[in-house]
Structures are given as structure tokens and as C-alpha cells.
Specification:
Distance between the termini of chain A: 58 Å
Helix content of chain B: 25-40%
Order of helices and strands of chain B: EHEHEEEHHHHHHHEEHEEEEHH
Shape of chain A: globular
Order of helices and strands of chain A: HHEEHEEEHHHHH
Oligomer: heterodimer
Distance between the termini of chain B: 51 Å
Largest interface: A-B, 51 and 45 residues
Strand order of the largest sheet of chain A: 2-1-5-3-4
Bound molecules: flavin-adenine dinucleotide, iron/sulfur cluster, FE2/S2 (inorganic) cluster
Strand content of chain B: 15-25%
Chain lengths: ~210, ~325
């Protein structure tokens, strides 16, 4: 790789030992950091709550929220499909809102409240959406399912909160709990097995039961 | 992903000054575009400045009857704001036609404006791309160019700007408010904000090094019927092949901007005088000097038909 600045071993040693804050005290060192061929991990302390339990971690800054959950907290319910925001398998709730945990750095969630599929329900005490997915066969292989369920729970809340969607006819009216609305709002969750219609059946049941 | 250092910004001016002092540093907002590109090492910032804690997440009325949208307002919150839904429907519609619910919960106003092209060759570090590596050539010219620009393109780059939101902001004559590294603030008209590729496709906006977006302002509402029509390869969760943002008044006059056809939201004001005569009449000026490739010339027809459908909708 072309490096516009020749980095002497001394400069590099300095960078490795000096730590993040000191390394950025001058623009010259920052440029060295950019062009150094070996990129050294920078470690940071991060704390957030996951499913109601406080967690404190020391992570490479590059760690995504998804990897923090799976690799460090061993909450492997949340899945990695594409790692690029394209499939929704990694959907979790942060402060009550669904996001793709693969496109977010763990360090950006300091102090946040995270809910994963493990926090929605347990095998003995299923969340109504989990129970409905089982009843309606809302999956085949199950890989996308944790993301689908987290998204499905959030979608019903978003409709109830009055957030419009692409298929809402009247922007100024409260959106309706229809299959069309749910389908559009679930488009960020891809299912390779094509369980879509059963997923909508499961969601419709939960929506009806709690509307 | 290349390693980086990280800090949380304390004020917009300090963030701008810090970014200017730190070569290659990037602001990170929602992170939904930047992290994607960092994973692929298309972007390799040595330092990230997290701007989420700056309180720029409010939508406020301005003195002249418009709205000031904080740079960190999430796409979901902007689309759902009562004032935006009532007075700037084209903006709500454009936002809701973009990305997915999860992404819109994270994506911010400034980040959306600054999202980078989806040209597949830009994404493939094994391919020549003048935008990614200036001077290396353009693999899209003579390559697969179905998604690429048909107007305003250059011999250096034929990429499109992927934002839906920006197309609506162009039709609404929004302005981008910034603070520069020296602490001075300025306003940039959205028309001047995004650049055409010319011979420097890596320079995408009017922003200077380190310049930080604090807000986007909308002038007072202009009434009319607001429509956003987006044509894509699947009905949801896909980028536009062609999109039309239009605000049409009861007498048939109005404004129109296009997405998916150029390196920036495409609007030709002098074409708009022909709007009362229908889509066909607008096309000559709107798409003047178009340079489609054999793979994307269908977009010209698609623009006319999409505009025609949008006008019918507006008059219904
Ligand atoms: C699968 C997928 C599908 C998508 N589909 C669509 C679609 O259909 N339509 C569409 O329009 N978009 C789509 N998007 C793109 C999405 O809208 C953008 O990723 C998002 O808007 C970027 O916002 P962000 O806040 O996450 O930006 P970030 O990733 O945080 O930042 C993007 C850029 O903006 C800079 N930046 C951020 N804030 C500021 C500031 N205040 N001042 C100066 N610079 C700043 C950053 O440094 C970075 O360079 C899609 C994305 C994905 C992953
Ligand atoms: S069209 Fe632009 S972004 Fe795509 S390969 Fe050519 S130079 Fe790169
Ligand atoms: S793994 Fe996050 S969206 Fe695919
Ligand atoms: S159940 Fe297999 S991917 Fe959805």
C-alpha cells in the first residue's frame, strides 16, 4: 500500500505506546496513524445495559454492537447475515427503537438500554410475538427469525405511535394496522426461506390481540 | 476495518476545528453509511468524531415561518413530524421511500445528505474508480451502467447520488447551515450543495475540510400537492432507478426535482414553466444534454412516465 509519509520505527513505537489521546495531540501523528501499515487496535471501556443487566466491556473500538453482543456477551440470538445493513438479521432495540446492530459501533451505545431477542421472552415465558411465530410457522431455517421478531414487535409499536410509512394513504392520518402497512415496514428484514406470509399472519394475530 | 481513535464532540465549532486539525478525520452520526464503507476500507478515517451528543436533534420553527431541522434529527423523526407531514409532505414521502425502518431510526439529516454513491465499482476496491482513487479511471464507463447517471455526468464519473431525502429538499429550496473550523457559520443553498462530477468526482459537496453541518432549513410552506414517486427494482428497501419529487399548485404550475439520474438531485427551474402543459412538454429542458449509456437510456423514458404519473396524482 502506498504511504505518502515515511514512518520511522520510532514514530510508530511512539504511536503504539502513547495511546489514543496522546497520539492525536498533533496533526502529524494523526497522519502517521492513518498511513501506518499495521493498524493497531485501540481499546475502550464501554458500558450499557442489555436486557436489563448492566454490562461493562473493554473492546477494540472497531467492535460493532452486533459483535459485542454475540462475541463478547455470548448473546448469540441476534444474527449476523450481511454485516452491511441489508438484511435485518441483526435487528435489536436500542432505547426502545429498532436498529441494525451491525451498522453501529458498540462505543456509540455507552449508557444505552439494549433489548435483544433473549430479552423479549424465554422458552418458559414467550413474548406473544414469539408464540405467534411458532403458531403460524413464521420461519423455516430460523436464521432471520430473531431479527424478524424484534422488528415485528417494534413495527406494531411504530404503527401505534402514529409513525407513517411509504404505503400510508394519508400522511396526516393515524396509520392503520393493516397487512400492507406491516409488510412495508418489515421490508428491512429479509427471509431467505420466504416465510413472509406466515410472518404477517403471526403479526396480524398479535396486532389484533393487543390493538 | 482499519483501526481508528474516537472522541465525542463537545460543540459544533469544536468538532469542526478538531476535524480540520486531524487529517482524514470523519464525523460519525448514524454511522449507517460511514461504517459500511469503513468495513470495506473504502473509507479509512484514522479518527472518528462522534457528533450524536450535541443536542442537534430538534425541529424548530424559524422566524420566517419555515423549519430548522437539526443535523442529527433521525430520518424517522423527521418523516413523522406533524409539521413536516402537513406542510412539506414531499419530504416525509421521500424519507419514507428510503432504506428500511431500522436504518431510518438511525440515519440522520446531515448523514443522509452526505451519503456516498452506490456505484458498484466505487464499492469494489479492486476496480478503477476516480471517486475512490482520483486519476485511476472509471470502471462504470463501458461497464455495467444500468443504475448510473443520464444527465450532468462527465467523462470522469457517471455515478448518481442515492439520497431520496435530498431530492425533496431540492424541490423545497432547503438551505444547509454549517460551522467552519474557524467558528464562522454560513448557509449553503441546496442547489449549490452537491456538485456535478466534472473532473473531480471525489469532491462531492461545497463543504470545506472540517466544515460541520448544524441544520437544514426549509423556507415557509409553499402549499400545493406534494408527491414523491420512486421507481425501483422491488417495491420497498431498494435505491431509486428514477424518482420524482413534485409540488404542484391548483393552477398546474409547480416544481419538480429528480433522483437517480445525476450526481446530485436534478432540478432545472426553467423547465418548470412548462409543467402545466404536462410531462412531455417539460422533458426537453429537464433532460437537455442527456448522455445516457445503452444500458441506462431507459431512464429517460422512465422519467417522463414517472413525471406524468406524479402529475396525474397531483391533479387527482
Ligand atoms: C441497505 C441500505 C439501504 C439504503 N437505502 C436507501 C434508500 O433507498 N434511499 C436513501 O436515500 N438512502 C438509503 N440508504 C442510505 C441511508 O439513508 C444513509 O446511510 C443514511 O442516511 C446516512 O446517515 P447517517 O447519519 O447514518 O450517516 P453517517 O454514516 O454517520 O455519515 C455519512 C457521512 O456524513 C458525514 N456527516 C455526518 N453528519 C455530519 C455533519 N453533521 N456534518 C458534516 N458531516 C457529517 C460523515 O462524516 C460521513 O462522511 C440505505 C442504506 C443502507 C445500508
Ligand atoms: S461512476 Fe464514478 S463512482 Fe462509479 S466507478 Fe466511475 S468514477 Fe467511480
Ligand atoms: S447483519 Fe445487520 S443488516 Fe444484515
Ligand atoms: S426462516 Fe430461513 S431465512 Fe427466514
Amino acid at each position: 500500500m502506498a504511504s505518502p509519509i515515511d514512518i520511522s520505527p520510532n514514530r510508530r513505537d511512539l504511536l503504539i505506546t502513547a495511546g489514543a489521546a496522546a497520539a492525536l495531540s498533533s496533526a502529524a501523528t494523526a497522519t502517521a496513524a492513518q498511513t501506518a501499515e499495521v493498524s493497531q487496535p485501540v481499546i475502550s471501556k464501554i458500558s450499557f445495559s442489555v436486557n436489563g443487566a448492566d454490562q461493562a466491556l473493554e473492546l477494540d473500538l472497531r467492535t460493532t454492537l452486533l459483535d459485542a453482543l454475540r462475541e463478547h456477551l455470548h448473546l448469540t440470538g441476534t444474527k449476523k447475515g450481511c454485516d452491511h445493513g441489508q438484511c435485518g438479521a441483526c435487528t435489536v432495540m436500542v432505547n426502545g427503537k429498532r436498529i441494525n446492530s451491525c451498522l453501529s459501533l458498540a462505543v456509540m451505545h455507552d449508557g444505552d438500554e439494549i433489548t435483544t431477542i433473549e430479552g423479549l421472552g424465554t422458552p418458559d415465558k414467550l413474548h406473544p410475538m414469539q408464540a405467534a411465530f411458532i403458531k403460524h410457522d413464521g420461519y423455516q431455517c430460523g436464521y432471520c427469525t430473531p431479527g424478524q421478531i424484534c422488528s415485528a414487535v417494534a413495527v406494531l409499536e411504530e404503527i401505534r405511535a402514529g409513525i407513517p410509512s411509504h404505503v400510508s394513504d394519508d400522511l396526516n392520518a393515524a396509520p392503520a394496522l393493516t397487512a400492507d402497512e406491516m409488510r412495508e415496514r418489515m421490508s428491512g428484514n429479509i427471509c431467505r426461506c420466504g416465510a413472509y406470509s406466515n410472518i404477517i399472519d403471526a403479526m396480524s394475530e398479535v396486532a389484533g390481540a393487543t390493538a | 476495518m482499519k483501526s481508528f481513535t474516537y472522541e465525542r464532540a463537545t460543540s459544533p465549532a469544536e468538532a469542526a476545528a478538531k476535524a480540520a486539525r486531524t487529517p482524514g478525520a470523519r464525523f460519525i452520526a448514524g454511522g449507517t453509511n460511514l461504517l459500511d464503507l469503513m468495513k470495506l476500507e473504502i473509507e479509512t478515517p484514522p479518527h472518528l468524531i462522534d457528533v450524536n451528543g450535541l443536542g442537534l436533534d430538534k425541529i424548530e420553527a424559524t422566524d420566517d415561518g419555515g423549519l430548522r431541522i437539526g443535523a442529527l434529527v433521525r430520518n424517522t423523526d423527521l418523516a413523522a413530524d406533524d409539521r413536516v407531514r402537513r406542510d412539506y409532505g414531499v419530504l416525509s414521502r421521500a424519507l419514507l421511500a428510503g432504506a428500511s425502518g431500522q436504518l431510518r431510526n438511525k440515519a440522520t439529516t446531515a448523514g443522509n445528505l452526505l451519503q456516498r454513491t452506490r456505484c458498484p465499482y466505487f464499492y469494489d476496491t479492486g476496480q478503477a474508480c476516480n471517486k475512490r482513487t482520483p486519476g485511476s479511471g472509471c470502471s462504470a464507463i463501458g461497464g455495467f451502467s444500468r443504475q448510473h447517471a443520464v444527465v450532468g455526468a462527465s467523462t470522469a464519473c457517471i455515478a448518481t447520488h442515492p439520497s431520496d431525502m435530498a431530492v425533496a429538499m431540492r424541490v423545497l429550496d432547503a438551505q444547509v447551515e454549517t460551522v467552519k473550523p474557524d467558528g464562522k457559520t454560513r448557509r449553503i443553498k441546496i442547489a449549490d450543495f452537491h456538485k456535478l462530477p466534472g473532473s473531480t468526482p471525489h469532491i462531492e459537496t461545497a463543504l470545506q475540510a472540517g466544515e460541520f453541518i448544524t441544520a437544514v432549513t426549509l423556507p415557509k410552506p409553499i402549499g400545493g400537492i406534494h408527491v414523491y414517486h420512486k421507481i425501483r427494482d422491488r417495491a420497498s428497501y431498494a435505491f431509486a432507478l428514477v424518482s420524482v419529487a413534485a409540488v404542484i399548485q391548483p393552477d398546474g404550475t409547480g416544481r419538480v426535482a429528480l433522483g437517480g439520474v445525476a450526481h446530485k438531485p436534478w432540478r432545472v427551474e426553467k423547465a418548470e414553466t412548462d409543467l402545466p402543459k404536462g410531462a412531455k412538454a417539460v422533458m426537453a429542458k429537464l433532460m437537455a444534454d442527456a448522455t445516457p449509456t445503452p444500458e441506462n437510456e431507459f431512464k429517460i423514458t422512465l422519467v417522463e412516465r414517472t413525471l406524468s404519473a406524479a402529475l396525474m396524482d397531483a391533479r387527482a
